[in-house]
Amino acid sequence: MAASRAALRAMREDVRALDIRDVTANWVNAAVLEAQVEDRIKALADLAHTPLFFGRLDYLPAAQEGQSFYIGRRHVHDGAGDPMVVDWRAPVSRPFYRASRADPQDVALRRRFGYTGGELTAYEDEALTEPPSRAAGPGSGAAGVPGPAAAPDPAAASDASAGHTSALLRAEIERPRVGPMRDIVATIQPEQDEIVRSGLAGTVCVQGGPGTGKTAVGLHRVAYLLYAHRERLARTGTLVIGPNRSFLHYIEQVLPALGELEVRQATVDDLVAHVEVRGTDEPAAALVKGDARMAEVLRRALRSQVTTPAEALVVVRGSRRWRVPAYELAELVRELLDRDIRYGAARDALPQRVAHAVLTRMEEAGEAPDDRTQDAVARNPAVKALVKAVWPQVEPARLVLRLLSDPEFLAEHAEGLLDEAEQRAVRWAKPPRSVRSARWSAADAVLIDEAMDLVSRTHSLGHVVLDEAQDLSPMQYRAVGRRCSTGSATVLGDLAQGTTPWATSGWARALEHLGKPEALVEELTAGFRVPREVIAYASRLLPHIAPGLAEVRSVREAPGSLEVRTGAGAADVVAACRAALGRAGSVGLIAADARLPELAEALAEAGLPYLSPGDETTAESRLTLVPASLAKGLEYDYVVLDEPAAVVAGEPDERTGLRRLYVALTRAVSGLTVLHAEPLPPQLAPAGPLP
Ligand SMILES: Nc1ncnc2c1ncn2[C@@H]1O[C@H](COP(=O)(O)OP(=O)(O)OP(=O)(O)O)[C@@H](O)[C@H]1O
């Protein structure tokens, strides 16, 4: 490790010493090159607390010339240019994640290193092929490793390859959390790696219960794709979409820690922020506005802006007048309407079509017009006036405004699509006077985005990761789909955690709305976050919230990690938080949104400082007060859950309430304490004895 650190330092020095004076033609080039050199130096910085490698592969003599490779977060080479540490994403690193005894992939030995505060303190060996090859390998290099070897005996090694939890994996998961989400490069599991390394061309959808690593997998997939397709993605761009700001804040450090600084992160609301959102919808209105039928309503409404020319066009040029009859103009318009092009593109094409019709007449009259004549005709005031009248410019927000405020206009275009009640639900009670004064809702902004795309095509990125996808409405899927129409996507979600009125009931439908019906649906079933005792308790809700979904198989047992007791109010909650703070790591107090003011006051009175979700935990400040509505995607070493019945009652219907509770019950890594004064929701009672 010391040698590779030194080599990395030398690599940095090499870049620093580059003399670029002679290779740049002018100051602009020089400035660009200098910036690149600066970036490269930054990229080569040695992160004191991230070890340079976490694994080693010893190949069999017949493969890779029997070499050993150290696997790390980045590539390090020695003075001669030979690799000392290889990037975890390189093909030669792949068996580190995928090889097993059943399929050793030419590897004799896999070694995992354990660190404590940057110090190498342990290692774990797995012989993937029979011992003779191992003895011949360079395994003796381990002699100088300080500290105890974690699992050097072959029995433990075979256990690990059979999918049992290794001591290092367990230690990594249970390492106390401070600060934002961490990467998992050292311990990506085979079923996860398969998704991480799947090709750029295809869209992958991952269904996985709480804590199965969906978010982690999505982020590592981006890092992998950027490595494998660097140039292409640098050009086309990548985007990670998460449910809200606090979640994005929580995950925002993972990619930079993996050396990837160029990935944009946004919520769906950010993507469609064409108007200021100041209003909210009744659930009934939001449901209809988010329905895919609205796309057709919008399409019809937009097309209705085009009118059939009723009069002939007369173009005067010099002493001559050219006349194109109305029926011929109407045919041109019809042709454009029938073609599958955007409203704006068709509008741009119309003048040339009309000019062409005029030119045909000129030719018939014996003239010899050229391209310049056609351009001039297309710009003729009469042609311009015709286009303006027949194919007017449309402002998308105004179109949506009219649909939501003009009952007749809506009825005309929603006919056969939305019934009377649905039309009433989406209409504004008091129509706003202008786009600017309207109290737009989040769902309205999505409608405007759809209308904008009908007018001119939305720019598509190379790859989009969509997290917590189960909560999107069909119209939101469409908005995301537009942003990867020429690229691919990674869709991550859990049907059991859907808490919006329009939550997805099945992935096939969702993928259709996204425009990726051919996507592969994969399932992650191993749970990393939540210990077995806790997930078993939470899973009692599954038959009520997502029948058919299998219970997460936790990789860890943690006896005593679950405590359910009656408490007599805020004082008990404070006491439970104090107890949790007595241990290392982060603590989340999760409660129904309505209970937050009372609990905040109790914490303040008790002199317990607390953070809000999205604030970074530090060694000094480890307690976060989390409204149940923001708990999704987050995790804490210890969770105190206040009053489950109130969490359920906080939602408009019981199923959503129980799903919210399921989310809240599955945030803990090391311990969950449930406190209740009211009776627990009956669905949490243990399942009865089998008949
Ligand atoms: N292979 C792994 N090695 C170590 N830790 C892992 C691994 N996979 C997942 N984890 C850890 O498990 C926890 C849960 O992961 P993550 O948040 O990605 O799960 P999720 O499926 O998105 O959960 P949710 O459905 O609750 O949002 C994280 O702390 C993550 O670092």
UniProtKB/TrEMBL annotation:
Record-listed ATP binding positions: 208-215
Tagged with keyword Hydrolase: yes
Comp. bias (Low complexity): 145-163
Positions of the UniProt region annotated as Disordered: 122-163
Domain (UvrD-like helicase ATP-binding): residue spans on this chain: 187-540
Keywords (A to Z) from UniProt: ATP-binding, Helicase, Hydrolase, Nucleotide-binding
One Pfam family, short name: UvrD-helicase
PANTHER family given in the database record: DNA 3'-5' HELICASE, UVRD / RECB / PCRA DNA HELICASE FAMILY MEMBER
Protein's UniProt name: AAA family ATPase
Phylogenetic placement of the source organism: Bacteria, Bacillati, Actinomycetota, Actinomycetes, Kitasatosporales
